[in-house]
Hints:
This protein is α+β, with helices and mostly antiparallel strands and 165 residues long. Helix content is 52%, strand content 16%.
Amino acid sequence: MRRAVIVLGTTAAGLAALLSFKSHSLAASDPPASTPPPSTGSPQATASGTGPSSAGSTAGKAASATPKASAATQAATRTVTGSVANTQYGPMQVRVTLAGTKITEVTVLQRTDDGSESDQIDANAIPKLTSETLAAQSAHIDAVSGASYTSSGYIQSLQSALDQE
């Protein structure tokens, strides 16, 4: 009888603690503080490539653009390629398109490549990560359950792209 009272009391206390837990939303509180201001720096920091490419060739395209086109592109939209994040299951790399300080598109250039299971995980996780990125407007997003390596690589590459901004 004594054990039953202790178990019921502990269960009630645990349930009360669980129900009083308040989660926070990074999307509502972080974007202004974590989104960098528009860059007025060199064209290399705001490279604007147009197709899937590596970071090196994207920077080369920006350097070869005419000054007039480059200035117009910087004012409207710019594209920044993140560094390759090597995970246990392969590389992850993203390219971010920004309009002002707003993230308008995230494109995955490289994704984990450890077979069909990796393909299934990526097919599920990458759309969720991209959606969260667009909602949060930063790299402060939650990992996708069951895709911790993919999530980690995605977030690392995303943060490196935003750091170049």
